[in-house]
Amino acid sequence: MKYIYKVLLFFVAITLLNGCHDSFLEEKVFSNITPLNFYKTEQDAKAALTSVYNTMRSANAWQRQIVLAGEYPSEASWPNFSGEAWRTEMDQFTWSASSGPFYQIWSQLYVMVNRANTVLMYVDNINFTTPGMKEQIIGETRFLRGLAYLYLVRFFENVPLKTEENMNELEPTNEGTADAVWELIFSDFEYAKNNLKPKYTGADVGRATSGAAQTMLTKAYLSYAGRPWFKSEYWSKAAQEAKSVIDNTSYGYDLEQDYSSVFALSNEHGPEYIFSVEYLSNKAVGWDFQTFTGIRNGDQQRLGGWSSLCVEEEFFETMDVSDKRREKTFVLSYQGYSNPEITYTYPGNISLPHYNKYQDRDDVGSGTGDYGQNFYITRFSDLLLMHSEAENEVNGPTATAVSGINRVRERAGLAPLVPSNFTKESLREAIYQERLWELCAEGHAWFDMKRMNLMKQRITKYSVEDKHYVFPIPQNELDANPNLKQNSEYGN
């Protein structure tokens, strides 16, 4: 999977020049590839599926904007006044419907939805010869569509429902669609869970698996149970689904013993991996987060850094110095890349705290946007913490509720949580805090605060209103589609 990134479609047009008369201006098209004549073989299906995967690597998706939209409006990260103005708007909760990332994220996720719908619409035209291949193609496609919609509905709440049946509708509405969108998400992940393999080998590593589908189904249940949907019966569904994944030995999921190895290029599909966006250096399919989080003029790596996703100093101070995650989470000390005789430290001659998660000097690409380290959409520690959260919401602080969080804390070298020391509310906050320490800079923070209804409580530097629990429908989309309605928090 990691090595197949570009789908090449060849269009052959033959134009004949028949002397000096007007007919030479007429284009004679002898062959043309369309969805109607393209979907014939298994290879066609695989190529079309690859085009759906490819949408994830766009800068408007998980390569940049989705991750930043989940990080900047949090207490852990800030943009250091870098780059585009919208980054500061996100960080300081001053965004509007015209802020840049909303349209970029919305439009790119619908590209992903539309490509998935096209595959599902034409897959029955294909002559499959490999047993189970059709179900696998459909399963991976539905997983990706479910993933796109999960992010759309959590970001924007009221979004148009587009499936293979109505994908050609030009101006779909977003009014009254939320429950139907959630049902599609659950159905897509369920189908993928029941039809995909538990793991892959060789070039297929990186494809969606049944374990990834079950994990994302857990996250979907968890999200639907929390704010703003408050479907409390889904807490138990999330807890049961999470436990099923944790106990399923065929998936092979486990925590790495050493937290730093989770982010090593050499270990990108280790036991903690569940599902990632796949990158590869020197193949024109890398990404730039080493540069984005790297220290500007810091001699930290061969190609420099931008200091565009930095650590809030207050958050840096919250992590105990004995926490084994601290050295890999934050830049504490390093020898200069070009000047190894110079030692850089924070605090010291590094002025701001920075993330160290994405720094790997063994990851050497052709440029600042060509690093090969993958990006985790979800990993095993995320699942363990989701299980604790769901169990706490169902039964309060019990030994079962703290089992997941305590596994995460044990690896970090921290004392286990004792259930009798907590109420449901205080354990909820402890789980949120653990998620922030464990998963910072991985695009989860805004979603966690939203789901747990903790945004106003956790964000104290800036003024937070109810509207900040949902993103506005992008103004560009409202202008183009009269059937869209702005989220009520932002007016009509």
Automatic annotation (TrEMBL):
Gene3D superfamilies linked to this entry: 1.25.40.390
Record localization: Cell outer membrane
Record-annotated SusD-like N-terminal domain positions: 40-222
GO cellular component, one term: cell outer membrane
Major location (coarse): membrane
Domain RagB/SusD: 271-490
Statement: the UniProt record of this protein carries the keyword Ribosomal protein: no
Keywords: Cell outer membrane, Membrane, Signal
InterPro entries in the cross-refs: SusD-like_N, SusD_RagB_dom, TPR-like_helical_dom_sf
Family of the protein in this entry: Belongs to the SusD family.
Protein name (record): SusD-like protein BACOVA_02651
Species name: Petrimonas mucosa
